[in-house]
Amino acid sequence: MAGFHVQAFVDALVLEHGASPRTVEAYRRDVVRCVQFLRTHGVHRASDITAAALREFVYSLRDTVPPRKSSSIRRNISALRTWFRVLTAEGLVSIDPTERLDAPQRGRTLPDVLSVDEVTRLLAAPALDERLAFRDRAMLELAYGAGLRVSEWIGLAMKDVLLEDALVRVLGKGNKERLVPIGRSAIGAVAVYLRELRPVLERGEGRGLLFLNGQGRPLTRMGAWTILRKYVQLAGIEKAVSPHTLRHSFATHLLQGGADLRAVQEMLGHADIATTQIYTHVDREYLRSVHRQFHPRA
Asked: Which residue among the candidates 5, 62, 253, 270 is catalytic per the annotation?
């Protein structure tokens, strides 16, 4: 690793910075990990390292299984910045490529999403011989098909489902109302549920809400979680899936299909587009994984 001056970096940490043995070892390990990555990508000297190459290294940390935590990635970036401060101070390199290297924001992690195949399996999981299958299929189709928060889907009133217009009227955070389009699959599933099952469940305690439990009362948040977990298991999905995972998947799949970010913001009911922009990062990770898998020179 002579071309990367790792030993000079370690010596400087010990002799000039007075770093603890634990910090020295952690930083050395982080830099070595980066060097190994760079070598596999055709970089063999510290002076040849670019900001773009370092960004790809940071992206690779996010792609590990399981993905590294943001705190671990920030420490990695801190090690790289310290490494290049030492190298520039000692005249071993002339340019510091870490100056434009951004660390992940604290508390902002990329949400888990389902693949299209996993969503298809999940939506097909309710077996028609089950008593509440029509409700469960309608609930899952609508939750994914409209990108609803769990509080929104259990709070939907029958009057808010405008099947002829292919819309649902949603009361979101801050009592902000929005109209969200729904597709044929969701329309069909909800129509069957309204025709075949909901009248059977209704015993005067439904309060006009769309989704009822087996006793004819409004479905609770915990009830929705329980139903979702049941079908995640039946579909053979090994990821940790929450109601919000369906919302994340809705947004990600729209962007993968070429949807405009502003349109996705409107459908999700985000007040600030910066909240919606996290899904562009999810989409970028998806595109990168596709490139690695299928490009002959990846």
From this structure: 270
Q: Which residue has the higher pLDDT, 201 or 42?
A: 201
Q: Pick the closest to residue 57 from 26, 36, 28 (CA basis).
A: 36
Question: pTM for the complete prediction?
Answer: 0.60
CA distance 77 to 55: 10
Helix (H) or strand (E) holding 181: strand 177-181
Instruction: Give me the residue label for tokens 């699959």.
Output: 185
State pLDDT tens for residues 134-147.
999 999 999 999 99
Indicate which residue of 62, 149, 248, 253 is catalytic.
149
173 is catalytic: yes
* Given the residues 137, 247, 248, 253, the one annotated as active site: 247
pLDDT digits (tens, 9 = 90+) for 258-274: 888 888 888 998 877 77
Which three-class secondary structure state does DSSP give residue 119? helix
Domains of the chain, start order: 2-100 (1.10.150.130), 116-294 (1.10.443.10)
Give the pLDDT confidence score for residue 136 in this predicted structure: 97
Distance CA 248, CA 147 (A): 7
Residue 250 sits at the vertex; the CA angle it makes with 261 and 141, to the nearest 5 degrees, is 145
279 is catalytic: yes
Beta bridge partner(s), residue 161: 168
From 68, 74, 244, 288, the catalytic residue? 244
